[in-house]
Amino acid sequence: MTARRVASVLRAADKGSAISSPATGAGAQRHERIYQAVSSAIIEHRLQPGARLREDALAEVFGVSRTGIRKVLQRLAMDQLITLTPGKGASVTRPSAEEAREVFEARRLVEGGLMQPLAQVLDAKGVEQLRALAAQEQVALEAGEQSEAIQCSAKFHSALAALAGNETLATFVVQLCSRSSLILAVYGVLLFVTYGLFQAVPGGFIPTQDKLYLIGGMKLPEGASLDRTEAVARRVSELAMNTEGVSDAWSTGPSSTTYPASAPPSASAQS
Q1: Domain boundaries, the chain
Q2: Which CATH number fits domain 3-92: 1.10.10.10, 3.40.50.20, 3.40.50.720, 3.40.50.970?
Q3: Cα distances (angstroms) measured from residue 2 to each of 7, 51, 55, 176, 186
Q4: Tens of pLDDT along the chain (271 residues)?
Q5: 34-39-40-41 Cα dihedral, nearest 10 degrees
Q6: Is residue 257 a contact partner of residue 268, using CB atoms and an 8 Å limit?
Q7: Number of other residues whose CB lies within 10 A of the CB of residue 81
Q8: In Å, what is the CA distance from 195 to each residue of 12, 100, 178?
Q9: 248 Cβ partners below 8 Å, 6+ apart?
Q10: Whole-model pTM above 0.85?
Q11: Which spans in the chain are helix H?
Q12: Could you give the count of Cα atoms lying within 13 Å of 142 in the half-sphere of its Cβ?
């Protein structure tokens, strides 16, 4: 991207800021405004990976000194949204394949750990919020709006963390989602082409993607009785059948007996 294009993008990102003029707030407020404008432009892919961020150009766009711009750039670098290179200045980070793997592995571990506490506190209002965000992402995907879909996905996962009630992990998830956005800006074309192929290729060519079933496992404390284990298995099936979109559910206990969730308690079918 040219310096003029970068300046144009940042001016647009700065419009509508809560602090419309540098003179209306203290230094910390001005720096926050600049940080939000630049980070939003990066996350929304208006500033592409590798784009140079010159201190003098940013100082002119936002009407602050280069010293103030350096503070903002240092914060963006700490969030790994930009890279500061001695002698070359700042540029939007271009993550490597290894960094991409590490970020998504971190997300798998962190977000996976949030699921149990989330399940304990999630209410109907939270479910509706998540469904609305998922629907927005699907609409963006179907419309081919890659950047919008990535933003919706980040909002969905950030909402999951926030609803779980752990503010520290929620903040970490937001940071990981921001880095994920950069990764998708670099590798997203391949991912969205793959998504398109999954939609276009007949299911018979991709059997593992066409099964439309979910297999789960249950783990009880050591020493749990057979009766308790089978009761839990039956309860899991009942919960599954009460989930929207599920047509059939079975649970198999240690006695190798399979219980259709729709069957009465006394009924059973040998597996």
Answers
A1: 3-92, 97-201, 226-270
A2: 1.10.10.10
A3: 9, 8, 14, 28, 18
A4: 677 777 777 777 666 454 444 444 566 888 888 888 888 888 777 888 888 999 998 888 888 889 889 999 998 998 888 899 988 899 988 888 888 889 889 888 888 888 888 888 888 999 999 999 999 988 988 887 776 777 788 888 888 888 988 888 888 888 888 888 777 766 665 555 555 555 555 554 444 544 556 666 667 777 777 777 777 777 777 887 887 777 777 665 554 444 444 444 433 333 3
A5: 90
A6: yes
A7: 23
A8: 31, 18, 21
A9: 241, 260, 261, 262
A10: no
A11: 3-14, 27-43, 55-62, 66-78, 97-121, 124-142, 146-164, 167-200, 226-241
A12: 6
CA-wise closest residue to 20 among 5, 9, 35, 30: 30
Distance of CA 79 to the CA centre of its chain: 16
Write down how long the chain is.
271
